[in-house]
Fold Hypoxanthine-guanine phosphoribosyltransferase.
Amino acid sequence: MTTPVAPTPMPPLSAALASADLLFDRATLEGVIADLGRRIDAALDGERAVFLTVMNGALIFAGHLALAIRTDLEFDYVHATRYRGATSGSELHWLREPLVPLEGRTVLLVDDILDEGHTLKAVRDDCVRRGAKRVLIVSLCTKQHDRLVDGIGADFNGVELPDRYVFGFGMDYHEQGRNLPGIYALK
Ligand SMILES: O=P(O)(O)OC[C@H]1O[C@H](OP(=O)(O)OP(=O)(O)O)[C@H](O)[C@@H]1O
Ligand SMILES: Nc1nc2[nH]cnc2c(=O)[nH]1
């Protein structure tokens, strides 16, 4: 029998929140998402797209966004992670690939944050390999810095962020704080 490993203690969310700045509150984000929905409807022009959510971080954004889009959608998700609860990224781990055939489809690729772009680039390239005819990247937020990998960008972006680690509205602080109804930035 293997000896159980004690869980790594997590830095407390309460301490992070006490010194964090609230960048965008829920009402502001809901307004931003409503506007994204209108713009996406215009781009789809009646076409039924595959709404592909990148788990886990995009879960909350995806739910709000889907309700803001009036065009009917087909839902699927991928699970790809490269931060795995840490505050800096490493190699991308695929935990779940799409099941809906993407051949000839328009894909709305939905994620919470475009930071260095490795995650969305890998998932976008995978959709193209699967034969998607058009991949529209939708990100709730994009971080402002000069570390973005070449060849990736959001077709639809909600808000721009300073170059600080953020959490809330789906995004985690050591796997905590995802259900905070706003976006917070660590000092
Ligand atoms: O642009 P990048 O530098 O690649 O970072 C962006 C990615 O990082 C987060 O995922 P994470 O790996 O933390 O997994 P999670 O979605 O489960 O939080 C976020 O949800 C994006 O998918
Ligand atoms: N929670 C969270 N996940 C990220 N993934 C890439 N950048 C970030 C960030 O600032 N916060």
Summary: Residues 26-44 form the longest helix (19 residues). Strands lie at 21-25, 49-55, 73-81, 93-96, 106-114, 134-143, 156-161, 166-167, 182-185. Residues 54, 56-57, 81-83, 89, 111-119, 172 surround PRP (ligand 1) (CB under 6 Å). Residues 67 and 98 are 21 Å apart (CA to CA).
